[in-house]
Amino acid sequence: MIVCKFGGTSVASAEQIQKVANIVKSNPARKIVAVSAPGKRSGDDIKVTDLLINLAMAALKNEEIEEELQIVVNRFMAIADGLELDHTICDVIAEDLHERVQGDKSNKELFIDSIKAAGEDNNAKLIAAYFNSIGMPARYVSPKDGLVVNDLPERTYALPEAYANLAPLKSTKEIIVFPGFFGYTKAGILRTFDRGGSDITGSILAAAVEAELYENFTDVDCVFSANPKVVNDPVEIKEITYREMRELSYAGFSVFHDEALMPVYKIGVPVNIKNTNNPSAPGTRIVPRRSVTGRPVTGISADSGFSTLYVSKYLMNREVGFGRKLLQILEDENISYEHTPSGLDDISVIMRSNQITLENEERILSRVKNELNADDVQMRHGFSMIVIVGEGMRNNTGLAARAATAISKTGANIEMINQGSSEVSLVFGVLQEYENQILQALYEEFFAHARV
Ligand code: ASP
After folding, report:
1. Tell me: domain 2-219, CATH 1.10.3720.10, correct?
2. Whose CA is nearest to atom 6 of ligand 1?
3. pLDDT for residue 352 is more than 70
């Protein structure tokens, strides 16, 4: 059995959904289909999920919402018309949206989640109706039937029992159409995953039914070895391990959600990233293991928006518990960190800047100074992390030297270097303004010149 997931652009219009039907029909093993909400039909279009967020915000402010609600209904109506479905499905969608906006607003986040999820939920109903209308027996299944998730305040994830609950879908006769992006808590409260979270739903389903393959259909032929918006014509990645993909999607490879690897990784279900608009292209396969031949580096990613907390204190290395106390201060502010490069008497904690506000920055600085008696403490913003990834890096000497030389040619200073113990990645922290230049220089070094 194959589980496939179709992303926003793959289900954005009637024409796209017809392509989805053809893809599903062409292989009888494709029995479970997870779908996103309709995404952008062109560059300047708005995703239904974003329209729904606007609607939720307006409802929270008790503003007039009828117009916003109608815009969403019209998007579905245009799709239904293009697929020659009668309008009963649109009435169902309009009624569903009215019901949702009337819902409990006492918790803002949960209210927004319930509206946001309407894009996927209604699209799944519509797509199931369309499949049936063209003679492909299909059934909409709600995440209510088994996709249980945790409670607030932690970010949403599937509870272990979700897998057992969903496992019976394995024996389905019809095609299951399952909405991506959300689940329900044990108390029956809807919660969405992070943005792009339909990838996670597909992965949970693939793991639950122990699929032979998880196909993730998007709008590009494959994963590229570097961002094609920055690097001209980058090499296509044909095969990549879970670990490599995890490292790359951490820093900017947005083709596949980084959290989506976990469920399939545990069971060892391979993933194939494919293009709805060009389904015969082989795509990129994400596999548990691969033999490393040729280039040691598989991909280079870069992401901006990092801050560093620099702390120095004489004899820090002798002080038992210093690191724990420092990280405790961040935990108290609910901040997660990414790297902690350290020296004898100093340590930097690198974190995503979007977690830092003027207020918590001030609190952190004063607590580190006063409670840890640090000699110096500074918070700096505006960093990028550049990550070089490859299973072949472990057995290759001189890679760090080559990377550092390539970076030095751009004139940028390397603020931080971190090599994970698994040695499949090498991370460089640099000032944000050098990010693109460095990415190009590293790509030149490791890919353009075929030197291995
Ligand atoms: N529709 C959601 C989003 O735009 C989830 C998804 O498409 O994966 O983030």
Report:
1. no
2. 196
3. yes
